[in-house]
Amino acid sequence: MKDNQNNKFSHLFLNGKKIKKANRIKTLPLFFLFIALLISTVNYAQREVESINNYLDKLVQSDQLDETDVSDWVVTAQHVSSISNVHHVYFRQKYQGLQVYGANSSVHILPNGGILKANDGFVNELNNKIVKTSSASLSAIEAIKAAANEMK
User: Fold this and answer.
1) Is the dihedral of CA 68, 71, 75, 79 positive or negative?
2) Beta partners for residue 80, in sequence order
3) Rounded to two decimals, what is the model's pTM?
4) More confident residue, 98 or 22
5) CA atoms within a 13 Å half-sphere pointing along the CA-CB vector of 122
6) Labelling 115: which of 10, 30, 123, 139 has CA 20 to 30 A away?
7) Which of 77, 81, 85, 72 is nearest to 122 (CA)?
8) What is the per-residue DSSP string for 40-98?
9) Tell me: the pLDDT tens digits for 118-149?
10) What number of other Cβ atoms are within 10 A of residue 103's Cβ?
11) Mean pLDDT over residues 71-87, rounded?
């Protein structure tokens, strides 16, 4: 029988039957590669969120937006250019957990972490522009009819 070090599989016995067990030494580098990729992805995502927050903070400091305008947002799409290595991140303003239609912004992050370009589509003073009511002004059927009329 060949030496176990040269074998692709080592053998175990379970309930008297011979079973094969994959050589753990070969799977260990794959495990460490997976962990390294996971850590780098988390670091990249943290850098992206930090860049967006820094950009939004500048808009608040220059009185273009209020603190409440930038307190809640969600990334809607992102990709890294294979040519320039610029990370393009698109995000949308939220209000009380709901995405605000049309309030889309983007940040284009250079490989060194600097912002190449940013576009602001957030609604300024959104909290003051929301009609606050304790009950719906339309029934479900009225809402569907109104939406259908807008599609004509």
Assistant:
1) positive
2) 87
3) 0.60
4) 98
5) 32
6) 123
7) 72
8) HHHHHHHHHHHHHHHHHHHHHHTTSS-GGGGS-EEEEEEEE-TTT--EEEEEEEEETTE
9) 999 999 998 888 877 667 778 889 989 988 98
10) 18
11) 90
